[in-house]
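Key idea: predict the complex, not the pieces.
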Amino acid sequence: MSVIDAATAANNDNEKNDDAGQPGAFPSGRGGSTRGGSTRGGSTVEKRRNLGVGSFILLAVGAFVFLFPFYYMFIGSLQTSPDTSVAGAFPNPANLTGENYANINGSINLLKGLVNSGIFTGGVILFTVVFGLLVGYALAQMHFRGKGFVFGMMLLVQMIPFQLLLIPLYVMIVRDYGLADSYIGMILPFAINSTAVFVFRQYFMQLPSTLFEAARIDGASELRILWQIAIPLVRPAIVTAVLLTFIGPWNEFLWPFLVTKDAAIQPLAVSLANYISNVAATASNPFGAILAGACVLAAPAIALFIFFQRQFISTNIGSSVKG
Amino acid sequence: MSLRSSDGGPEAGSPAAGSPAPGTVATGMPVGRTADQRLAPRKRKNFLGRQPLGLLFSAPYVIYVLAVLAYPLGYAVYISFHDFFFTAPRVKVDRPFVGLDNYITVLSDPAVQRSFANIGVFLVINVPLTVGLSLVLANALNRVTRLRTFFRVSYYVPYVTASVAVVGVWLFLFQQNGLVNALLGPLAPNLSWLTNSWLAMPTVALYVTWKQLGFFILLYLAALQNIPDELYESASVDGGNKWVQFWNITVPGVRSASVLVTLLATITGANLFTEPYLLTGGGGPDGASTSPVFLMYQKGILQGNPDVAAALGVVLVIGVLLIALIQKRLVGGKED
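Result:
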């Protein structure tokens, strides 16, 4: 922070000198260039760049703190024996192995776990996209009785705390309906993501309503309007909603943990957590195996996020600020 | 289909009826008015609205919300007031109304009191740290032009990664002879972070702050876009340095975002489960890092007392609402 302050102070001095036009001030290189260019605009640009140095250092330190655990996760997953010294943070060719991945795969079936996570997440995405598009379109471009009620409900639902639903949902889904150890039991509480519904509505709102009125006059059915006109125009919204919905179920631990006791149906997050809390103590290199499993669980989400990062970031902001 | 076609008739008719108007009236205004007058009775004609099919389109979502979210909400309150226990499916048993008994059981339980105190410790560390760090980093990110995308991505990566995965690394980093203690050398705590009853909860709070920060940075980044540059320019003309600008322009400028960030950080804290379950092996050492949701799992599902767990859930939600109201007053200032 002191760097930023110093830079700002120096700049302010220059600016004051410029304004007062005092000849006594010693013109530094920066001040000179400022005077050479346009007065105020130049100094603002200059200031931005100087502030940038301090901010840049701060951000770089931050980025290190945020990324280092991921680097360490990967390095740790490749170590034959866990090396927790400072030197262990650097790859050591004598201590590298792929064995941890084989070990964790021997305890929990990684592929099966990934497939289960995929079915769980895919199911949620499917329900969210199909029913979310329907209700989002209806809320944005159709006039019907009860529209205000549906819209209000969509906003309120996002405020329901999940911890309150935990027990009744468990009683209903696991005990009453007997949906324990089933994909539908896992999917049900997350089936339609209301934030995604909100995103769909916002995108459909941006389309001119005259477009839809014209289609209606031409005799197109609402379903055909939605399928042939509205959906092709909001493709980015679908990408957005899929990304937004993806991280929820993919990373969810508590609910699938409660619903699934059968290892054959557990998502990877649950089987890895069970490994951490139960099995790890008996393994020869527990951390290596845990970190290998962690890498497998983290990789799809991180890859997807980096690939679509532009859409991911902008939409998350938009939906949260508005919602 | 039949509903729609009956609808299409008057819709197609109205422009035709309005068409002679431009010829007779000079300005566009009266045309609009006559069209409106013609539209008004048409709207009333259809009780379900112009596109009643909208009801059908909304139906799956409405049914879903009512059945899977709204009904359990009421059911939770019902369970908390009754002597409720698990039964086999479709078995009818008597579940007598017990008034506030479950609430009394919950509130007089030392483990529950401990867990609420733990959440208090968690919030005191996590919320100010989250608000402060995310605002400072967002502010810095807003000024830098180089490597901006890289920074945004790196801050966001922990947020998109499963907690279960990242917990593994934290266990590795913070264990007795882990890298953190190796770096600290003689300064390392005697009982390591996650097994030390004084440090377990702060370590969990630190972990959650780190994990969620990227999301909050993006919230602030969006809020910062709404502060006009002219404010900073005029402040620098008046001789306000960077600190003065930060406190007098940036902080008040993002106040509504701060309210949202404190609220969301508090809700995240109240929802704490995965971290005490995995990082500290089930709320250890000695219950020093149990959370209310962890106790709900333990009491409700492991020990078979869903009624007590439901009461705990209700108490927790009421507590969060109260804290949120207080925070809104404190952070929101006099604006609202």
